[in-house]
Amino acid sequence: MRPLVDERLRRLLGGDALVSLRKRLRQRYERGAVDGLARFRIANLGADEHAALAALGGRSVRFSRSMQVDVEAIDAALRQSGIASSLRDALEQIDGPIIHAETARLQATAAWSRVVSAAGHPGFAQFLQAPAGIGLLKRLSRGDHARAIQLCGSVDAVLAVLPANGMTRAQLAARTLGDAHALDGGRAVAALVLAVWRIVISPDRDVETLPDVEDDAGSRRDSGAERARDTWAKAGVLVNELARPALFLNLPVSGDASLAGMSGEPSYASLRCLVRSPPCWNVAGRDVFVCENPNLLAIAADKLGIDCAPIMCTDGMPAAAQRMLLTQLAKGGARLRYHGDFDWPGLRIGNHVVREYGAVPWRYGAADYAAGVAAARRPGHPLDGPEVVAAWDDLLAPAMRTHRLSIAEESVAESLLRDLAA
């Protein structure tokens, strides 16, 4: 609690009428030399402000709009009267402590430098060197240096055991931090670990193509939680590992009958299976077709069965299991060929699959769209939503913009089945 202000000081410098004057005097100390003030001129004074400054110095001066302030003389007069030890002391008694701006800035810089030096993991230390990295740490610690150092220790402890080999997130949190929920979504340590992994260790180049939108059937394309699950999976950590498994048909695999399923019948691979025991996919040098919609894969199974070429489904924007399978197929040497819906979300998904996994378009260009439009029954489904440019065909988006018609993947199944049968 602030001590009571001497009544004489209150009469001299207190009150609402002198708030602006006190603020201007405080700014002189905040922005002035570290060793204090000597003399300065202050302008644009009102009559009450001029009278107050004159009284502080114990002198009578005719009113003018500006005055030379002799800080040493005022300090001496205040000390002699016993009201305050200095002008600065008087201002602090009335309105609280005065913080010297440059000193405070240097102290804060030094304190955050000590925080950064507390990061032991090389990737984390690199992350904190960037303005965005240290900015995130400051926000998550709410500017508290001690809290920031604690967070650094926790992040180091987690990163030290990554990548894991199919460990669940709860197990990782319990093992490293003693709390099974310490890495749950929304926790500060989890946010920092994920950021380090995405930006430094395994850079995520696709941040702009992960919207939280729904397709026409209402199924979720992606979300922040899904993206976090995918990042954890890249680090070998499982979150909801049985949710949204990857769907495929006739993918050749060695030594895992559980993944092979019935020949010619669709199969599923969970994230748990793909991370804990990565299958040996026999796809080197082979075409593997990639579709967006489960219905197309079901049609291929019905029509072609065992004679269908290897195909997998992203099920909209690929989630963690689908991304893991795509990564494994690409690393296994597969030639990935992608097709999706002719709509803006479909092109967004196509951009992601082409960019991240080296896929090539599969009957997914402007000419293919034009053929789909020509065969489509009217009135059809209108094309709406924000436009997306296809990375593989500059003419596709303009053609779609011209016709304003959405063509579902299932609508062109006949032509796709010819490729799958070949």
Entry summary:
This protein is of the alpha/beta class. Helix content is 49%, strand content 10%.
Give a structural overview:
With about 425 residues, the chain is of the alpha/beta class. About 50% of the residues lie in helices and about 10% in strands. It has 20 helices and 14 strands. Helix 6 packs parallel to helix 9 (about 145-160), helix 8 packs antiparallel against helix 11 and helix 12 runs parallel beside helix 16.
> How much of the polypeptide forms β-strand, as a percent range?
5-15%
Structural class: alpha/beta
Tell me about the biggest sheet? Answer: 6 strands, mixed
How many beta-strand runs? 14
Give the C-alpha Rg: 34 Å
Uncertain regions: pLDDT < 50 for 5+ in a row?
A: 207-222
- Helix count from the secondary structure assignment: 20
Shape: elongated
Strands in their spatial order, largest beta sheet: 7-5-10-9-11-12
Instruction: Classify the oligomer.
Output: single chain
Please bin the fraction of helical residues. Answer: 40-55%
If you average the pLDDT, what whole number results? 86
CA-CA gap between termini: 84 Å
